[in-house]
Structures are given as structure tokens and as C-alpha cells.
Amino acid sequence: MKRLLGYTKPYKRLIAFAVLLLLFATAFDLSLPYISKVTIDRYIIPYARMLTLAGRDSELEKKILTDYSGTLIKIEGNRYMVQSTSFKDYDRRDLKRLERDDYLMPKRYYMLSENETKGDILAIIEEHSDLFHTAEGYRYIALDDMSKIPGKELWVLRSSDLKGVRFMAMLFLGILILSFLSNFSQVYLIQYTGQKFMFDLRMRLFSHLQTLSVSFFDKNPVGRLVTRVSNDVEVLSEMFSSVLITFFKDIFMLVGIVIILLRLNVRLALVSFTLIPLIVYVTMYFRIKARDAFRSVRLRLAKINVSLQENISGMRVVQMFVREKENYKRFSRINHDYFLANMRQIVIFATFRPLIEIISASAVALIIWYGGGQVIMEAISLGTLVAFLSYVQMFFRPIRDLSEKFNTLQAAMASSERIFLLMDTKNTILEPGEPVELGKIDGKVEFKNVWFSYDTEYVLRDVTFEVRPGESVAIVGATGAGKTSIINLLERFYEVKKGTILIDGVDIRKMRKSDLRSNIGLVMQDVFLFAGDIQGNVRLGNSSISDEKVRRATEYANASGFIKKLDGGYSAEVKERGVTLSAGQRQLLSFARALAFDPSILVLDEATSNIDTETEVLIQDALQRLMKGRTSIIIAHRLSTIQRVNRIIVLHKGEIVEEGTHQELLKKRGIYYRLYQLQYKK
Description:
Layout: H1 2-6, H2 12-44, E1 48-52, H3 59-67, E2 72-76, E3 79-83, H4 92-100, E4 104-113, H5 119-127, E5 132-135, E6 138-142, H6 151-157, H7 159-211, H8 214-219, H9 222-264, H10 266-273, H11 276-313, H12 315-320, H13 324-376, H14 382-400, H15 402-423, E7 445-453, E8 458-467, E9 472-476, H16 483-490, E10 498-503, E11 506-507, H17 513-518, E12 520-524, E13 532-533, H18 534-539, H19 547-556, H20 560-565, E14 573-574, H21 583-596, E15 601-605, H22 613-627, E16 631-635, E17 647-652, E18 655-660, H23 662-668, H24 671-680
Parallel strand pairs: 9-16, 9-17, 12-15, 15-16
Antiparallel strand pairs: 1-3, 1-4, 2-3, 4-6, 5-6, 7-8, 7-10, 10-11, 13-14, 17-18
Helix pairs in contact: 2-7, 2-9, 2-14, 7-9, 9-10, 9-14, 9-15, 11-13, 11-15, 13-14, 19-21, 21-22
């Protein structure tokens, strides 16, 4: 996680601002229940109780007059009124003594100050003077007597309370709007930052993949790498925007709720917290079970993917040997295991959320039971109880959402591990510290005592040969003789184990890979075409190759004939891997591509071994043009295609066993002769 967060450094200011907005949004959300509390206690059900001090010089009376003087509203003589909102400041033992010894009367009153008793309100008070009492600066009426006042008059009488309710409602609405703006802004910023972060990470991954050697791609399936760059990065994006930031919000929310509850009423807060150990235990137990279930699901999903890839890739063989039913049964078993693993995970999640709901409901019931008693005893106000209920429900909300977040977090951790494993893969083909600057090379190629192996067994053993500038050389041999390995080493797709490869007398390890490969034109048997158009596949994004040069290259390579017949010509759509073109057409395009880049060295690896006769004639004609004036190395099993080359090198089990022209090698009656006999003997 620490390393993953390191990628967010370029956006730390945006993230800091988003977190600040998150704090504001959390503060706004936390203030709403408190506003409800104040509205209830101050404006909806305000009342006061009469406190009469008998004049006895008791310790209790002294304590009341000293410790609680700020709560006392003097009516007359030794009689005082205490507002309901002030009882929370009293010690419970003192409150009980006041009620027990008849200091505090149970009757409740509604009070109006002199500032409020004007105009219509004063007229109503005078009209119902038998119900109202007058004191020093106050008018008060028993709550039981307020029912005797008509509704319209009561509405006027409590107009100041109604104004207070309206003000608090507007304040509530205003805070809701501010909360919306803060939440919208922080969500937008976080999503924007997350998308930028993932964009950069995806580009870094793609850039890193381009630097890795071919050996890495030989060992890693394409589907796996595509998943790393697309799916795994997307999972991280979801984790970053949906889990990580909401995690901070949840922390702020939980801490804020705990602080507010303790400030409202410590006793009731501690009662609310009695269920926290149970919540912690349930959450930890769920985390362990959910992690195991998640791993089981991912393992079985991987088996499904492997089975699907194997069956789809080998569908020709499956249908050829009528294996559909057997493969269906095998896939059904794997799919059923995946179904069961998912059901186990569903049971865990389906248990956790209702269990948290039960604990949440229990907490609410506990607060109603204990808090209700406190309201009756006037240890807390009704507004405080209502606020407590709201805060407790808010407290359990992020815990209920934990099940969904945990799944995303688990997937993100697995994805980040795979991504960083890929990022940590080092390129085995390194650039030279002080590269030799190359211009246009002559094309002399030398292999000197070259040894090479893919794993432990050598596939090339002490190979030494030289190709002079402009010379055409063919390399032949049975499958596994090491022919393609020579091309891989020449292009520096792999590094030699021992020996040296020189071009124009310079060790290729001292050349930049881009300089080396730009001077070598490689035509493979399995031609790869990108989705796009004909012209783009010849040019390959090289802006220095003009449209005219593309046309000349295709004409020279005998590819213009079929291109002109395509719908759109040079702008004709080419689908992925060139599936709409024949093998021969793809190969002609690869010749045109090589010609457009004008390399000094031309390499044809199995380039004419998989085409029809008509196209072979076109290719043979194009070959002669392509090889003219260029160093050419041709690898082919069809010996008929290489009889005109200057020299033929025969490889056998990684060693050069024969060398000469076609006729010279036939006269030797060695390995080349036997290969020739196998192909042409009737």
C-alpha cells in the first residue's frame, strides 16, 4: 500500500485539498443531528420547573446557589425557574435530592420574557390572565393550561419559537447544501485524481512492457499481461476512489461521533460504546473468513479462465476429435466449484451485514431503554436522546458498508501485488553506457564463437560465420537446430551467453537497440498486422515515410496489385492481426514494410514457408529486388527458395556442420543433401 500511495505524490496537493473538503463534508454531516437536538430542546418542547429554596441554611441550598447559580432564573423571593436544557448540568445525586425533598416541583411551565410579551402576545396574556403568572421580568404558564388557549392564539403566543424553528430549518437546509457541494467537490477531485493516477500508472506499465526483452514475452501469456494493464489497474482505480477516500471519511465520521456523544452525555455515550467490543470481534472474524473466501473464489476463477483459454484456443482439435461432451463435463465441474466458492462467499457477506444490523438495532434499543429513563428523570433532554439515536445509526453505517469495501480492498491488494511484480521485472537486454554512434551501416555481419541457451541446454554451440556487405546467405537445418535463435541474437532480442556478434566490426552490445534494429529489416513467417489501414501498417507510425514512399515500396514488393483491389485501397481497413487478408498478402505487406524502412540488413525468418504457389512467384520476384545491394540472411525449410543465394550455412543441433553453395552442398552428400532428398525425392 505504501508503494502504491507513492505514485500519488504528483497529485498530493489535489489529494490534500480533497481531504480538506472531506473534513468539511464530514463536519457538515455531523452537525445535522445536533441542529435537530437544539431545535427540539430550545424551540419545540421548551419548559421550565420551579425550584423553591426553603430558606434553610442547608449544604444543599448553598451548593445550588453556588454551583448552579447560572441555571437559576429568579421569579420572586426564594423561588426560581430552571429551564429543561439546564438539568444536564446538574449532578444526578443533587437532582434526586431536590426532587425527593420537594425543592424541585414536578409541574412544568412555559416561560416568556418581557421582551417577548408585546403586542398581540401581551393581548393574549391579558385575555387569559387567569392562566398566566407574573414574575420579575417573566410571564409563565403551566404546560397543562396551554391546552385551554385556542390554536390560533397559541400559534401567536409561540411565534418566537416558530421563528427559531424556521431559522434552524433554514440552517439545516443550508448545511445540507454545503454538504452537497463539499461532497460533490471532493468526489470529483478524488475521481479526477484517481483517473489521472491510473492513467499514469497504465502508461508506465505500457512503457515498461515496451522496454522488456522478447524472452519475457515468450514466458508470459499475452492475456495475463493485458489483464495487468487493463483489469488490475481498473481494480486499483476502484479501490482508490471508492475505498481509500471513503475510509478516511469513515474514520473522521467515527471519531467525530465518539467526541460528540461524549460531549452530549458521558454516561449515555459509555452505554452506547458497550457494543463496540462485539463489533470489533465480529468485524475481525468476518475479515478472516472473507479473505479466505475471496482467495478461494479467485483461485477457482483462475481455473475457469485457464479452461476457457485452453478450450477456445484448441477448438479445432476439440471438434476434430469430437471432445465437446468430455470438455463440457470438465468445464461443468470447474464451473460448479466456482459456483460453490461464490456461494460460500455470499453466505459470509449475507451473514455479516444482517448481524451488524442486529447489533445496530440493539444499540438503538439500549439507548432508547437507558436514554428514555434519563429523559424521564430529566438527566438528559429529549433532543439529546434524538441526537444520540441519529449518531448511533450514523456510527454503524460505515461498518455495514465494510463488507463491500473489504472485497474491493482484497482485490486491489492482489492486483497491486501483480502490477508491482511486473514493474519490478528488469530488462535483461541493457543499453550500453557509452553507445557507439551509427550512421548508415555497410551490413557486414560476424558471429564469433557464439554460445546461447534459453534455459540450461545450449541451442547454439560455438557458432562462427561471416556475411559480407551485400551478400545473401541462407541458414537451413532441421527443426530445433537453432536457426531462429541466430535471428533473435542478431536483433538483440536475447543476449549471447558467450562469444560476440559484430556489425561492421562493432559489437552489437555497444550499439543502441534502436540504432541496431532500425538498420535490420525483419520479415517473419507469422506476419503481425495492427488494426488500422494498409498505409499505416506499412509506415508503422514513422512520419518520415511519405505516402508516395509507401506506394513505391508496395509496388516494388508486388503488393500494390491486391491493395488496389481492396475497398478503399491504401486506406482499406485492416482488422486485428490482419485476419481479413490471406497469409500471402500479409507477407507481401511485410516485404513492403521492410522496404519502406530501407534497412541495410534484410532478415527473412521462414518468410516463404507458408504461402500459395502464385504468391510465392510474386515473393521470389520481390526477394531478388529486396536483396539487391543489401546483406540478406534467409531462413527457410523450403530449399527451393534459397538456391540462388551466395552461400548456405547448415545448422545441426546448434552447430555449423556445412557451408557452401547449393551445388557444393549437394555434392558433399551430407545433411543438406539429406534434407534436399527428403523434400524432393519421389
